């Protein structure tokens, strides 16, 4: 089954599997029971599920928030290995992994960002045991010893702060137990997938318990770099975690956690969707550019083996103290993240260019809160949160041995002469500009960058619940956040041609000739004097310099795609942002009956400014305006130009994106009866100044969408028609809109539907447990995940520029997963599992080929995987 369509009239397939679609996901209510016993528990009704979405323990039905819950038992049974798989059972959530093992984005209700740039904070906050993971790379280790995962839909800034403007993923692991127990598991599947995990827990003393858990996964690649004979999209990761639970008294407890995880993989396969006009030149150089006919053969041709390593480690201490009706909680955490990758960015066997990044993140967080549990009508929760983070990054683009030959051919050089090593186009340019022969595109590095960002934030938050009559709870909440960032960028562009503006070079040359002055002596003062004394002559020189028919060098400007960038801070730009915001929540919840709860809420959200930590970090238009064709000499007055800071070919863009401000209106109803339960939420959500981060073919543009909104609903139901059988069904419908986005990289998108957001997302499951008199059980599960056919994006800056955005790529998702587990009464379990059983094929996303105008590259989804496992619980 393949879903890859171009054109706006792509086919619409809505294939629901017979039997599974009628009722079915392990969604909020579909989670298996939260019992901590030594065996996989049989499903129970959803009103047994305890959640902490409001930072208080409540049943799922009592929680007046649109929250989806997946239990640890479902995660084990469905072989959900990491958060990338979580989206198959949570239709409001999407997770994408793209360029590297660490470049993932979490999206809730169509909102999310933060991939591929550590300066862009995520809009969906990820918390593990109450500790904020500030970058998605810090939340990608294999899931183990999970109690439950809560996905909170919509803005959650009131209780979760500045990084929850679109929602929250809260992962809760199992605490140490004072009864000895544990489990070990070994799984083997196709692609030689070996997965091992284990955990052990028990008492050390009467008031101290411990737990240890670990995972190891090694899998051959699902793709192959054919010319190098190396697997790609493999799995090679492990994680370990240790915990102590100390309970000196019935009122005081301490939970200490330390963890370490490592990823070392060859990621991620890119295929050619459209081979553009540069493909023949690449093939002449041995690039072996493929066509879309072979896209899902999962083969690639590269000149190096990509490297991806992620080291993620840290620890936290949570202290809880109860004094009568008051409870006090403190969570202190420190974490470090090291992320390194090196990849072939032209994605061909030709040796054109490689990129390398070495990133480090150090984060300290402290949360303290007080909550009440009075018998009276008023209760409260109040707290504070401190966040301190430092990010460093060293990155570079390496010139390949064939980059000059490739660009020579594209510049009009005779391919036979280029391949024979005879002088061609760039040799003439070097002679005309006075550059050393064989210098253009022959430096070891094309660019080199150093970034640093320091972020300090403080939040004060709280909620007050007022119950004027039995069953009616009125809630008001607030959050005040003050966020400060300091950032620095230094960058070098080594290519000599990129350091020359062709308009300015001609102007300087003509003035030097007219005044019999060496060009090296013609500076701003001499140019100003000549212009003042000879305005007509200067105008003629400027006109000729900007006319492509006269100044033939202008035809080479596309090859200056990595010019020098202005370092920051500088005399004009201080490299600082300072944001503060007051957000709030108003909600009314009413228990209509013991079985039915309803609520209505209004909430606002906030995400602080994000920084463009990339080589495309450019001054704002208010600080600099370039002249015609990037000329500095002809540029109008601006602070940077007037201060003499402008570097050749400098243009304006973005250093940072302004804060996001979200609001949501939501009404919901939750019902629970013996054998059946449901949750429904209807919402109208808006984010002003949504931070859009888009790849442009040679770099990344960070911009604010004026306003993006989404209307929709989320519904899930759990039905237990007979003992042992649970059917679940969950659906999310989204109707998003760019209310205003004039400055997107593909033009004015105001009034258009944002790409990549399916109108319908459905998750269903059927779980049947057959139990014998001996206590042994056979548990069978089938689930199905569907995303309706939708545009992947709103167009590509390079590919669609010449097409008027008339060719848009689409995708549809139809995933079937299944598992069977035989759980014997002696603790032994045997299982079979499969994911994407029908081998559905679709594009994850597409992007402009790097420095290959007209080429479109894309990422394929994961193929069918399956295997068996043995588990022992004790």
Automatic annotation (TrEMBL):
It is found in: Cell outer membrane. The keyword rRNA-binding does not apply. Residues 1-33 form the signal peptide. Its main location: membrane. It is a multi-pass membrane protein. Keywords: Cell outer membrane, Ion transport, Iron, Iron transport, Membrane, Receptor, Signal, TonB box, Transmembrane, Transmembrane beta strand, Transport. GO terms for biological process: iron ion transport. Residues 60-168 form the TonB-dependent receptor plug domain. This is TonB-dependent Receptor Plug Domain.
């Amino acid at each position: 089954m393949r879903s890859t369509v171009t054109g706006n009239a792509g086919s619409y397939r809505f294939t629901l599997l017979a039997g599974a679609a009628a009722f079915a996901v392990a969604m909020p209510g579909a989670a298996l029971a939260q019992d901590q016993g030594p065996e996989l528990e049989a499903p129970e009704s959803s009103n047994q599920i305890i959640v902490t979405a409001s930072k208080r323990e409540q049943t799922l039905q009592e929680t007046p928030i649109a929250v989806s819950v997946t239990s640890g038992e479902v995660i084990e049974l469905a072989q959900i290995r990491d958060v990338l798989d979580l989206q198959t059972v949570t239709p409001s959530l999407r997770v994408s992994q793209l360029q590297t093992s660490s470049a993932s984005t979490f999206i809730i209700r169509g909102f999310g960002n933060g991939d591929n740039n550590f300066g862009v904070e995520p809009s969906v906050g990820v918390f593990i045991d109450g500790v904020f993971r500030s970058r998605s790379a810090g939340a990608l280790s294999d899931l183990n010893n999970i109690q439950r995962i809560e996905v909170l839909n919509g803005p959650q800034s009131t209780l979760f702060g500045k990084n929850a403007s679109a929602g929250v993923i809260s992962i809760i692991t199992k605490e140490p137990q004072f009864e000895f127990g544990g489990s070990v598991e070994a799984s083997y599947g196709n692609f030689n997938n070996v997965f091992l995990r284990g955990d052990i827990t028990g008492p050390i003393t009467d008031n101290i318990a411990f737990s240890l858990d670990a995972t190891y996964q090694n899998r051959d690649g699902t793709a192959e770099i054919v010319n190098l004979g190396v697997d790609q999209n493999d799995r090679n990761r492990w994680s370990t975690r240790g915990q102590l639970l100390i309970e000196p008294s019935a009122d005081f407890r301490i939970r200490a956690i330390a963890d370490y995880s490592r990823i070392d993989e060859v990621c991620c396969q890119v295929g050619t969707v459209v081979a553009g006009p540069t493909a023949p030149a690449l093939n002449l150089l041995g690039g072996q550019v493929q066509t879309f006919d072979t896209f899902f053969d999962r083969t690639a041709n590269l000149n190096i083996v990509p490297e991806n390593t992620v080291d993620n480690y840290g620890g936290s201490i949570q202290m809880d103290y109860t004094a009568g009706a008051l409870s006090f909680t403190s969570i202190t955490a420190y974490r470090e993240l090291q992320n390194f990758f090196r990849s072939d960015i032209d994605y061909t066997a030709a040796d054109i260019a490689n990129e390398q990044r070495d990133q480090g993140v150090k984060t300290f967080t402290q949360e303290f809160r007080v909550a009440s549990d009075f018998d009276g009508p008023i209760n409260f929760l109040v707290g504070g949160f401190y966040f301190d983070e430092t990010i460093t990054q060293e990155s570079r683009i390496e010139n390949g041995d064939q980059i000059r030959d490739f660009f020579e051919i594209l510049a009009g050089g005779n391919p036979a002469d280029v391949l024979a090593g005879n002088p061609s186009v760039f040799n003439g340019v070097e002679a005309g500009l006075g550059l050393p022969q064989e210098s253009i595109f022959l430096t070891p590095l094309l660019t080199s960058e150093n970034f640093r960002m320091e972020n300090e934030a403080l939040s004060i938050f709280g909620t007050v619940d007022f119950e004027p009559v039995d069953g009616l709870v009125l809630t008001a909440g607030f959050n005040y956040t003050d966020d400060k960032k300091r950032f620095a960028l230094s960058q070098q562009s080594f290519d000599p041609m990129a350091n020359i503006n062709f308009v300015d070079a001609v102007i300087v040359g003509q003035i030097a000739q007219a005044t019999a002055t060496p060009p090296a002596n013609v500076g701003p003062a001499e140019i100003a004097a000549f212009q003042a004394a000879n305005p007509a002559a200067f105008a003629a020189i400027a006109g000729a310099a900007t006319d492509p028919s006269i100044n033939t060098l202008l035809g080479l400007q596309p090859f200056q795609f990595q010019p020098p960038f202005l370092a920051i801070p500088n005399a004009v730009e201080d490299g600082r942002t300072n944001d503060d915001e007051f957000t709030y929540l108003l909600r009314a919840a009413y228990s209509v009956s013991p079985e039915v709860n309803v609520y209505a809420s209004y909430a606002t959200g906030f995400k602080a400014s994000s920084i463009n930590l990339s080589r495309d970090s450019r001054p704002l238009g208010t600080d600099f305006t370039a002249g015609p064709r990037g000329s500095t000499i002809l540029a109008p007055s601006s602070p940077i130009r007037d201060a003499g800071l402008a570097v050749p070919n400098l243009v304006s863009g973005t250093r940072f994106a302004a804060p996001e401000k979200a609001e949501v209106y939501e009404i919901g109803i939750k019902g629970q009866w013996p054998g059946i339960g449901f949750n429904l939420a209807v919402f109208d959500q808006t984010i002003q100044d949504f931070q859009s981060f888009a790849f442009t073919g040679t770099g990344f543009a960070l911009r604010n969408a004026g306003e993006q909104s989404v209307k929709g609903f989320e519904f899930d139901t759990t039905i237990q028609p007979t003992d042992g059988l649970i059917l679940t069904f969950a659906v999310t419908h989204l109707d998003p809109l760019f209310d205003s986005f004039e400055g997107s990289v593909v033009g004015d998108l105001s009034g258009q539907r944002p790409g990549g957001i399916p109108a319908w997302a459905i998750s269903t499951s059927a779980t049947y447990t057959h139990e014998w008199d001996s206590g042994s059980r056979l548990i069978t599960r089938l689930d199905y995940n569907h995303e309706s056919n939708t545009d992947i994006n709103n167009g590509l800056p390079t590919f669609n520029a010449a097409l008027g955005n008339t060719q848009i790529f689409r995708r549809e998702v139809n995933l079937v997963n299944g598992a069977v587990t035989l759980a014997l009464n002696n603790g032994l379990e045997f299982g079979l599992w499969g994911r994407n059983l029908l081998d559905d094929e679709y594009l994850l996303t597409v992007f402009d080929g790097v420095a290959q105008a007209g080429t479109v590259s894309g990422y394929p989804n994961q193929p069918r995987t399956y295997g068996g496992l043995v588990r022992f619980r004790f």
